Amino acid sequence: MNLSILVPLFNEEESLQELHDWIVRVVEAEKWTYEIIFVDDGSKDGSWAKIEELAAKNPNVKALHFQRNYGKSPALHVGFEQAKGDVVITMDADLQDSPDELPGLYKMITESGFDLVSGWKQKRYDNAFTKNLPSKLYNYANRKISGIPLHDMNCGLKAYKNKVVKSIEVYGEMHRFIPVMAKAAGFEKIGEKVVKHQARKYGQSKFGWNRFINGFLDLLTISFLSRFGKRPMHFFGLVGTLIFITGFAFAFYLGAYKLYCTYTHQVARLITDRPSFYISLTCMVIGSMMFLAGFLGELIMRNSSIRNHYLIDKRIS
């Protein structure tokens, strides 16, 4: 199969028929074999009934329905598990992503050799102050922290090689950082394509301001896990040791200075009257705790089922 089109959705009844027909026109013009996978994230409107209607008319329509609303990441995860196409393209159901972009994204994967291609909505029709400006700041921070030069990492319109989506696990709210997870899994050919952004035609946005705060925290999480997830002692042990040594050095200096003053009959303040004593003591306690955290992390990893989970790309046997 050439193409799997994955569409996660929540309460998008009004747009589904138009989106389906538009996708079908594009893929049939390209003469691709395809499947459209709708993942209904617990919609409360008539979205599922509309999907059932579409599936009855088009055998290429597949669908999954969650009992309740779990979020976009679980929807993508189960969709990735079901996808059979050589190329997997994700897009939102609100018609803000144009199906006319499918051929360009498909060719970048199949002909240009990219592992992952992310859309870039260079010209947006959202509110400049509530969405555009925060999004630009958010993506700037993403580029600096992750090292992946994408202008719109959270764009829902993305294309993947099938083996990419089978090699990553999307959970929580980590759908914003699929390129980071893909890079951590060894897929470094990540590209970007300028795509058309369309104004929302039906309904309203399902995301608020909290997505920027949560997204930044999730980025720190995935960046940490990708670097130190399988070797926690390399982070906690190193930082803890440095903090402990710093505190011990201050304490040693204070003790040595007190002994020197006593030996030379000089008047010196009590060590416990000096703020630096408590700072050094705090450093030693924190350093010890961080070292123990790294040690416990190593013990947990030793008993983890994913301690030797590695992606084998090629094999000769």
Round the mean pLDDT to the nearest integer and report it.
85
Derived from helix and strand composition plus strand pairing, the structural class reads: alpha/beta
**Low-pLDDT sequence parts:** none
Largest sheet: 7 strands, mixed
Helix content: 40-55%
So, CATH architecture of the largest domain?
Answer: Alpha-Beta Complex
* Termini Cα gap: 27 Å
Under CATH, the topology of the largest domain can be stated as Spore Coat Polysaccharide Biosynthesis Protein SpsA, Chain A
Look at the structure and name the CATH superfamily of the largest domain: Spore Coat Polysaccharide Biosynthesis Protein SpsA, Chain A
Strand order, sheet with most strands: 3-2-1-4-6-5-7
Please tell me about this protein's structure.
- By secondary structure, the chain is α/β, with parallel strands linked by helices.
- It has 2 domains: 3-228, Alpha-Beta Complex (Spore Coat Polysaccharide Biosynthesis Protein SpsA, Chain A), CATH 3.90.550; 233-302.
- It is 50% helix and 12% strand.
- It is built from 10 helices and 7 strands.
- It has helices at 13-30, 47-57, 72-82, 102-110, 128-146, 162-165, 178-184, 210-228, 233-263, 275-302, and strands at residues 3-9, 34-40, 61-65, 87-90, 116-120, 158-161, 190-194.
- Strands 3-2-1-4-6-5-7 form a 7-stranded mixed β-sheet, sandwiched between helices.
- Helix 2 links the parallel strand 2 (34-40) and strand 3 (61-65).
- Helix 1 (13-30) runs parallel beside helix 2 (47-57), helix 5 runs parallel beside helix 8 and helix 9 (233-263) packs antiparallel against helix 10 (275-302).
- It is elongated and about 95 Å long.
- The relative contact order is 0.11.
- The model has no long low-confidence stretch (mean pLDDT 85).
